Amino acid sequence: MEDDWNGGYMYLEKKIKHNFTLLVEKDDLKQRLAKGNASQQFAFMPDKTTQIVAGNDACIEDFPFIAEIQRHEKRRDPWEHWCGAVILSETWLLTAAACFEGRIKNMRVRCGFEDLSDPKKQIRTIRRFTIHPRYNMDENVQFDNNIAVIKLRTPLKFGPRCQNISYTTIRGSDGLKNCQVSGWGFVDANRTEADTLQFADISVLSNTKCNDLAYPTVPKTQICAYDCKNIQQACNGDAGGPFTCEINGNRVLVGVFAWLYNVCNAEKPFVYSAVAYYTSFIEKWTGIKGIP
After folding, report:
1. For domain 3-45+64-163+280-286, which CATH number applies: 3.90.79.10, 3.40.50.300, 3.40.30.10, 2.40.10.10?
2. How would you write 167-195 as a 3-class SS string?
3. Mean pLDDT to the nearest integer, 150-161
4. Separation in Å, CA 63 to CA 59, 88, 171
């Protein structure tokens, strides 16, 4: 195995099953079925394309920090959208650990565009990835530590359409304002595809309120997003995509998309890995510090 792989594929080969879609534990599911309350409580990992349900068309200049991970099974196969990612620097990106199901030579990163047909994209190959060493290790938590860093072989060229974003070191949901999610893909539960980048303004729930609305329990290392009007949400496949908010007047990265409940009807919260709990992991591999 090449050194560039950093052991990531061998580790994930043991952790990821069935296109990285996971249900709650079987024993727990049996208990909930017996109680008659399991019909809308499955928890899924986002599985293919970045999706913002009922989103609005976005300008890439407003979201220059978003990137796309593409993959194909074989060299002759067409590239397809796989995950979202967030640009931390010219060579480092942040995403979800579950995005790395296969060989990195079958993956690439694109940025600097809003329209999928725009030819002015920057395309980069992946040098290596590193997932959190305790990803999905806790059987009592859905997709715990679902976070990973990517190093590119060639630096990105920064400009108005491709730029990094700082990540916050402030833990918890207090003080978060004007939060947004963004991505490409389906715009409704009927799998209607989007041609251009979508975004949505989203509220943040405290974990206590989140856990009152849905099961399984969301720990402090994850953050709940929710549309109180039950219209907008990120959906299946927005894995690794950005959740940003304003803190002290600055827009910062707060989380990367980790998992959601089974139906994209905006009736349930959707959950992000809170980056403030992973500052040591991010700094160790990228050397990039967050901001308070």
Report:
1. 2.40.10.10
2. EECCCCCCCCEEEEEEECCECCCCCCECC
3. 97
4. 7, 13, 23
Q: Among 140, 46, 33, which residue's Cα sits nearest to residue 95? A: 46
Question: What's the CA gap between 265 and 148, in Å, rounded?
Answer: 28
Whether 3-45+64-163+280-286 shares its CATH topology with 177-276 is answered yes
What's the CATH code, domain 177-276? 2.40.10.10
Say which amino acid occupies 244.
Answer: T
The confidence band for 91, taking pLDDT boundaries of 50, 70 and 90, is very high
Tell me what the pLDDT averaged over the chain comes to: 77
pLDDT tens digits, residue range 6-38?
A: 333 323 333 333 333 332 333 333 333 233 333
